[in-house]
Design a protein that fits this description.
The chain is mostly helical. It has helices spanning 7-16, 33-70, 103-132, 138-175, 189-206, 209-218, 224-229, 231-245, 251-271, and strands at residues 4-5, 21-24, 27-30, 96-97, 187-188. The strands form 2 sheets. The protein has a 3-stranded antiparallel beta sheet. The chain has a two-stranded parallel ribbon with strand order 4-5. A hairpin with a 2-residue loop joins strand 2 and strand 3 (27-30).
Length: 275
């Protein structure tokens, strides 16, 4: 069941302080709580259906892409290591081992699921937009559409940065670091995939920082002057936050996570309102 706003009634009711009206199946009436729940239920059902569809496709092709893309960061052939000025030389490939009987099967399922969620993320945002847009005025609708579109783009940008830069640099620094030549590094599949998914999704969420600042500036909570004034405090806070979300405690990984966060804070300053 779809919802269509009745603009004239909405303005009149807003002036009178009466509830907003919607048009259901060409019959105008007030929207009840359960009618909203019904619309939300179908939106969630469609999202689940799309995720399951992508999950089935990802599960089928996962063995073909696992070695090339997911385990690609463990190889010296990964493109970031061969960029001009960033070459790390040649090194032996990492040894990924499995010590639990069901880990490979469970990894197949979990990786397929998270890949499906990532691919279906724009559709999930579209369903969220379609659910709330009838209750918005035209100016609110434009701002909300920008927030959804910009937020989706920044999420994918963050996941890309996490996959292409943060994860491979972190992995190859820590996995090849040796305190003693007598200790051999063997990375378990659980440890590898946990770090892989954690870094990528954390970077995707962290790239929503400019959108958060923009929303707070729209509500008057912050503005460009206050963000600039407290830049030093923000640097300390971002450094502490980066230390908390960093999967390891070494300074190298900390800086790899902190630098993109600070760049996002500066972008948020540019997007914030002046007053």
């Amino acid at each position: 069941m779809s919802i269509y706003p009745h603009t004239g009634s909405r303005k009149k009711n807003a002036q009178r302080g009466q509830p907003h009206t919607y048009r259901y199946l060409s019959l105008e009436k007030e929207s009840t709580f359960w009618e909203h729940v019904e619309v939300l239920r179908w939106s969630i059902a469609r999202c689940v259906g799309v995720v399951l569809l992508f999950f089935a496709a990802a599960f089928a092709i996962m063995p073909r892409i696992f070695d090339t893309y997911i385990l690609g960061a463990a190889s010296s052939d990964f493109f970031i290591f061969n960029l001009p000025g960033l070459s790390m030389g040649t090194f032996a490939p990492l040894e990924i081992i499995n010590i639990n009987l069901a880990t490979q099967f469970l990894t197949h399922i979990s990786t397929s699921f998270w890949l499906a969620v990532t691919v279906a993320f724009p559709y999930i945002m579209f369903e969220a937009w379609r659910f709330i847009s009838p209750a918005l005025y035209s100016n609110e609708r434009r701002s909300t559409l920008f927030a959804f579109t910009f937020g989706t783009a920044m999420f994918y940008t963050g996941c890309t940065v996490g996959y292409c830069v943060v994860f491979p640099v972190t992995l190859n620094f820590l996995a090849r670091y040796q305190l003693s030549a007598a200790v051999t590094n063997s990375i378990s599949l659980d440890s590898y995939m946990g770090t892989f998914l954690l870094i990528i999704f954390i970077m995707g969420i962290m790239f929503e920082l400019p959108l958060l600042i923009w929303l707070l500036s729209r509500t008057g909570t912050v503005n460009r002057q206050s963000l600039t004034k407290y830049r030093r405090h923000a640097i300390v806070a971002l450094m502490v936050f980066a230390a908390i979300i960093t999967p390891t405690g070494d300074p190298f990984t900390l800086m790899v996570v902190f630098i993109p966060l600070y760049a996002l804070y500066e972008l948020g300053i540019l997007m914030a309102r002046r007053t």
